[in-house]
Write a structure and sequence with these properties.
Helix content is about 65%, strand content about 10%. By secondary structure, the chain is α+β, with helices and mostly antiparallel strands. The chain has a domain at about 70-105 and about 155-265 and about 280-295 and about 350-365: Outer membrane efflux proteins (OEP). The chain is rod-shaped and about 140 Å long. The two termini are about 50 Å apart. About 25% of the residues are buried.
Length: about 450
């Protein structure tokens, strides 16, 4: 960035600020255009350069907001769950972690395959007695210092590589399981919003029909103007409710679109209840916790050996001229350095690795507890929803019958408009409760399947 700040005693050059801005804009636009031509993976460094979260630059997140966002999503009846889940996983912000995990595992595997425990070093040396006795002594030496593996250290490094590879595979399964849960919630949010919108439209249809009857009877003097105004107010309230329910549907679809990056959604989403009532040790979260625990144990074994230091092998030639001599003697030297002792120094590194193992064991136990709690809550919610749904449907049937009887009675002049609207409201409330419980049952079935680790 160009910064121009003249002092009070400096004469400001004409048009210099405008030229600087044009130069900056030209280079900035060229940089942005180059970035936009690159693959989507450059969204992460671009986000870092702009000091924005990487998720905000994800290709699946709408970058521009406008009227198009308020349009309903198209329905694709052929959209399969596996395709939808794969797209959602690719669009998930944490998907970039998987490649980093694989790279880390490969790095450890390459390190364990190396013949040296660390980086070799080039050693150069020169000795002379010129500044002191000056008898003509001179010595030149060079060599390569190679750190060697301790006994069992190379095997421990290989175990870290294998554990990291298993952890990367488990992390991919766990991420897929996590995204599946978020996708289930998003689809059931859309289903709930669709049900609410459908019931709001039905309520509007009933209100319009009642207003038509009231207007007809008021025109012939059978009802007062107050009833006509009340019926019209009811219609306006129902129209407002439709607008609000449509907004909720747009919000639910926008959350789904942000999650998947798709402008399409499946027509219906339903899944059968699993017969399992417990989760297996192969559950994605448990598998990831086990892989992380195994890796920390491998790192502990490696740390115990690495903290003691590695033996060093030094091989190189030497050229030496003795004092008072005129010729040089050439030789080859081999040196081995073996560290020993220092338990008080190595204990700190080992203690930190032991602490990480304990943390991994505690996290594994906490994951198992959370899964038990989630499964218990999902099963309890499902049982409650099924029991309540049966009663709610009976109540909705009775309320609907009571409403139909009220409409007939109102048309015949047996009840007032207020009595009819009271019955209509009761019937609509009962139907909304039944619909909400149906969605709750579907959510609970999805939660049970998710808790045991099963995908649709």
């Amino acid at each position: 960035m160009l910064v121009y700040a003249p002092t009070f005693h400096e004469k400001r050059p004409r048009f210099s600020r405008r030229v600087a801005i044009e130069v900056v804009d030209k280079h900035a636009m060229r940089f942005i255009n180059d970035i936009l031509r690159q693959p989507a993976m450059l969204a992460v460094p671009l986000a870092m350069a702009l000091h924005l979260p990487a998720a905000a630059q994800a290709p699946g997140v709408p970058s521009e907001h406008g009227p198009a966002e308020h349009e309903p999503l198209d329905v694709d009846r052929g959209l399969e769950w596996d395709v939808l889940l794969d797209r959602a996983v690719l669009n998930y912000p944490r998907y970039v972690e998987l490649a980093a995990r694989d790279a880390e595992a490969q790095a450890w595997s390459r390190r364990s395959a190396s013949p040296f425990a660390g980086r070799p070093s080039l050693v150069l040396g020169y000795r002379s007695d010129d500044p002191l006795d000056d008898y003509g002594f001179a010595e030149y030496e060079s060599g390569i210092s190679m750190p060697l593996w301790r006994f069992g250290q190379k095997r421990a490094a290989g175990q870290i590589g294998r554990s990291a590879s298993d952890e990367a595979a488990a992390a991919e399964s766990a991420l897929r399981w996590e995204v599946a849960g978020a996708l289930r919630e998003a689809l059931w949010d859309i289903e709930a919003a669709l049900n609410d919108l459908e019931l709001a439209n039905e309520a509007l249809t009933v209100a319009v029909e009642i207003e038509r009857v009231v207007r007809r009877r008021q025109s012939v003097g059978d009802l007062p103007l107050e009833d006509a105004l009340l019926a019209e107010t009811t219609v306006l309230d129902r129209r407002t409710s439709v607008v609000e329910r449509r907004a909720e549907l747009v919000d639910a679809e926008f959350a789904y679109e942000t999650l998947t990056g798709l402008g399409l959604r499946p027509a219906v989403f339903d899944e059968p209840l699993t017969s399992r009532r417990d989760f297996a040790p192969s559950h994605p979260l448990l598998s990831l916790a086990d892989a992380e625990l195994e890796r920390t144990r491998a790192q502990l074994e490696f740390a115990e050996r690495d903290a003691k230091g590695s033996p060093t092998l030094l091989i190189g030639p030497r050229r030496q001229r003795d004092p008072m001599a005129t010729f040089y003697t050439d030789s080859v030297g081999v040196e081995v350095t073996v560290p020993f002792g220092g338990g008080s120094h190595t204990a700190t590194t080992t203690a930190a690795a032991v602490r990480r193992v304990a943390e991994a064991e505690a996290e594994r136990a906490a994951v198992e507890r959370r899964l038990h709690a989630q499964l218990h809550e999902a099963l309890h919610t499902l049982a409650t929803a099924e029991e309540a749904l049966e009663l709610a449907e009976q109540r909705a049937d009775v309320a609907a019958q009571h409403r139909r009887m009220g409409q007939t009675a109102f048309e015949q002049g047996e009840i007032t408009l207020v009595d009819l609207l009271r019955r209509v409201d009761a019937a609509q409330v009962a139907e909304r409760q039944a619909a909400a419980l149906r969605v709750m049952r579907g959510r609970s079935i999805a939660a049970v399947n998710h808790a045991v680790g099963e995908l649709p």
